[in-house]
């Protein structure tokens, strides 16, 4: 006989539920602790990969990123988005298992309990917020009323901080939940801080529930990583973008029309303005094509998670730096034809990138002139760099401190 | 808990509070004030979305799919409702897994429809 002293005599559908109304054995600390471990690992991965992506776009002197390894940003962002999607069933499962706690009465029993519940509220809000806004960003649905990048980054600190506090508060419960070991997972013994639940009516086992969550998480990951891992491309149902669907077999995020540069980019009098210690010079596309050309196979790795490698040809950035009177490892400020103040209309190449063999002012893609949407007449392509910083429709390069 | 665990616990809580403090600093210095209101609404909406819609829906659907429908099916075949019976564990694992996968796909599909409509 189950003891449910809090339950009133009214039928459950006529009143606000009470924790005892939820009879499934999965509402148990042993399940919650294990899901919390998986979710905590996912939050840690998301936080670290998100931080790396942020620092690529907003570099700091004390933690510079270099061009090697070439694949690092591609892996980082693919992991960030794939784990983000995989977190969705983990969060739903975790919140489902603890849902009865939402109906605990009285809602607050003291200041410590109040703080604990407040930290859980912050954790739920920040985690769901990050997942929802992240997915909307993947689909380019900017319906928030605020800029995605700045707020998503700030909220990451809130989610990470709330997760740390929550784990700290619940550490004793987690220890007890794990102490019994996996073999005890489906025993009839009550879990820590939980009344006996031998009256489950759906035949569910805790082990089975955790297995379901694992199956769902792995399956959803397989449906996402196809945007980077080519063999799984056909089943990339959760990836809205086919990386190879676009002009010259490569996807485009921002078109020339969208950037408002169609006329300027196709103007016959286009010339690259090269500013350096030796002064300012102008190089036409023919001048650039007459310089030593270098080929590099590098990926476009988008912050939305998709990536694709392509064969680029152009002038090495260090050759241009030298031509301008600078050193081959001077930093370069890149300006595009886009209107000043537009997002990502400019970018900066640190000295380590400029000096790298494969950092190019690219003029061709897959052996053909760059398509207008890929940055014709010239664009930046460099290893280990977010796609948004591979500036297209380049108009001006400023070498060193020449600006 | 031993001393090491208690020490870990304090470090985690202190680290978490520091991270949230950094969030507050970022909110005050890097996020324009006119974004605070929509940001707050989206944060509160995230809790409401889970507690008022997703979790109750999952609870009701779970009861329907895993309790009520199997009970009705057994009742038809056996002439009585025996809700306590259960099939092989792997059936439940796959069924729940499928519900989670399809549920996630449904959510993402709705987002993609929304995106396409704009």
Structure description:
The complex is a heterodimer of chains A (403) and B (118). With 403 residues, chain A is of the alpha+beta class. Chain A has 2 domains: 224 residues, no CATH class; 151 residues, Alpha-Beta Complex (Sulfite Oxidase, Chain A, domain 2), CATH 3.90.420.10. Helix content of chain A is 39%, strand content 14%. Chain A contains 10 helices and 10 strands. Chain B folds into 3 domains: 30 residues; 52 residues; 32 residues. About 7% of the residues of chain B have low confidence. The longest helix of chain B is centred in the middle third of the chain and has 43 residues. Chain B has 3 helices and no strands. Classes of the chains: A alpha+beta (403), B mainly alpha (118).
Question: TL;DR of this structure?
Answer:
The complex is a heterodimer of chains A (403) and B (118). Chain A has 403 residues and is α+β, with helices and mostly antiparallel strands. Helix content of chain A is 39%, strand content 14%.
Please describe the topology of this protein.
The complex is a heterodimer of chains A (403) and B (118).
Chain A: H1 29-57, H2 72-98, H3 111-138, H4 148-179, H5 206-222, H6 256-259, H7 262-266, E1 272-276, E2 279-283, H8 285-290, E3 293-301, E4 307-316, H9 317-323, E5 332-336, E6 346-349, H10 351-354, E7 360-365, E8 368-369, E9 379-381, E10 394-399
Parallel strand pairs in A: 1-10
Antiparallel strand pairs in A: 1-2, 3-4, 4-7, 5-6, 5-10, 7-8, 7-9
Chain B: H1 3-29, H2 36-78, H3 89-117
Shape of chain A: elongated
Q: Provide the succession of SSEs of chain A.
A: HHHHHHHEEHEEHEEHEEEE
Report the helical percentage of chain B: over 70%
Q: Sheet bearing the most strands of chain A, described?
A: 5 strands, mixed
Radius of gyration of chain B: 23 Å
Number of helices of chain B: 3
Mind telling me the C-alpha Rg of chain A?
27 Å
Q: In what order do the strands lie side by side in the largest sheet of chain A?
A: 2-1-10-5-6
Class by helix and strand content of chain A?
alpha+beta
Count the helices of chain A. How many?
A: 10
Query: Domains counted in the coordinates of chain A: how many?
Result: 2
Q: Work out the largest interface and the residue count of each chain.
A: A-B, 69 and 68 residues
H/E order of the elements of chain B? HHH
Q: Using DSSP, what is the number of strands of chain B? A: 0
Largest sheet of chain B: none
Give the oligomer, counting copies of the same chain as homo and different chains as hetero: heterodimer
- How many domain modules of chain B? 3
Structural class of chain B: mainly alpha
């Amino acid at each position: 006989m189950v003891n449910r002293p809090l339950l009133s005599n009214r039928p459950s559908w006529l009143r606000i539920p009470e924790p005892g109304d939820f009879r499934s054995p999965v509402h148990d600390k042993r399940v919650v602790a294990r899901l919390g471990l998986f979710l905590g690992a996912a939050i840690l991965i998301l936080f670290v990969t998100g931080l790396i992506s942020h620092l690529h776009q907003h570099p700091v002197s004390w933690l510079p990123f270099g061009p090697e390894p070439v694949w690092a940003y591609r892996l980082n962002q693919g992991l960030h988005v794939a784990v983000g999607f995989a977190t969705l069933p983990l969060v739903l499962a975790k919140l489902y298992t603890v849902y009865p706690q939402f109906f605990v009465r009285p809602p607050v029993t003291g200041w410590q309990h109040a703080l604990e519940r407040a930290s859980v509220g912050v954790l739920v809000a920040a985690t769901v917020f990050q997942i929802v806004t992240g997915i909307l960003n993947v689909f380019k649905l900017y319906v928030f009323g605020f800029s995605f990048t700045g707020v998503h980054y700030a909220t990451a600190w809130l989610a990470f901080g709330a997760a740390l506090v929550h784990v700290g508060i619940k550490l004793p419960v987690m220890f007890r939940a794990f102490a019994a070991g996996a073999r005890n997972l489906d025993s009839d013994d009550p879990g820590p801080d939980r009344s006996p639940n031998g009256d489950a009516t759906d035949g569910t086992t805790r082990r089975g529930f955790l297995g379901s969550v694992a199956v769902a998480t792995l399956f959803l990951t397989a449906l996402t990583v196809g945007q980077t891992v080519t063999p799984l491309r056909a089943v990339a149902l959760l990836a809205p973008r086919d990386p190879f669907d676009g002009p010259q077999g490569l996807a485009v995020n921002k078109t020339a029309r969208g950037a408002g540069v169609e006329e300027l980019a196709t103007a016959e009098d286009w010339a690259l303005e090269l500013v350096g210690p030796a002064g300012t010079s102008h190089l036409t596309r023919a001048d650039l094509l007459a310089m030593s050309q270098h080929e590099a196979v590098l990926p476009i790795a988008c912050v939305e998670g998709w990536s694709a490698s392509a064969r680029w040809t152009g002038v090495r950035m260090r050759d241009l730096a030298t031509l301008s009177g600078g050193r081959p490892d001077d930093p370069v400020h890149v300006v595009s034809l886009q209107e000043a103040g537009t997002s990502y209309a400019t970018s900066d190449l640190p000295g380590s990138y400029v000096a790298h063999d494969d950092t190019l002012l690219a003029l061709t893609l897959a052996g053909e002139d760059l398509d207008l949407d890929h940055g014709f007449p010239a664009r930046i392509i460099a290893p280990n760099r977010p796609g948004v910083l591979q500036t297209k429709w380049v108009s001006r390069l400023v070498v060193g401190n020449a600006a | 808990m031993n001393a090491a665990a208690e020490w870990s616990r304090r470090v985690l809580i202190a680290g978490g509070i520091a991270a949230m403090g950094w969030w507050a600093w970022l909110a005050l210095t890097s996020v324009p004030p006119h974004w605070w209101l929509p940001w707050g609404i989206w944060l509160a909406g995230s809790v409401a979305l889970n507690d008022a819609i997703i979790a109750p829906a999952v609870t009701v659907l779970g009861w329907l799919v895993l309790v009520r429908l199997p009970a009705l099916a057994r009742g038809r075949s056996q002439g009585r409702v025996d809700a306590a019976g259960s099939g092989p564990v792997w059936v439940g694992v796959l069924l729940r897994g499928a519900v989670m996968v399809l549920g996630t796909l449904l959510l993402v599909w709705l987002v993609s429809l929304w995106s396409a409509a704009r």
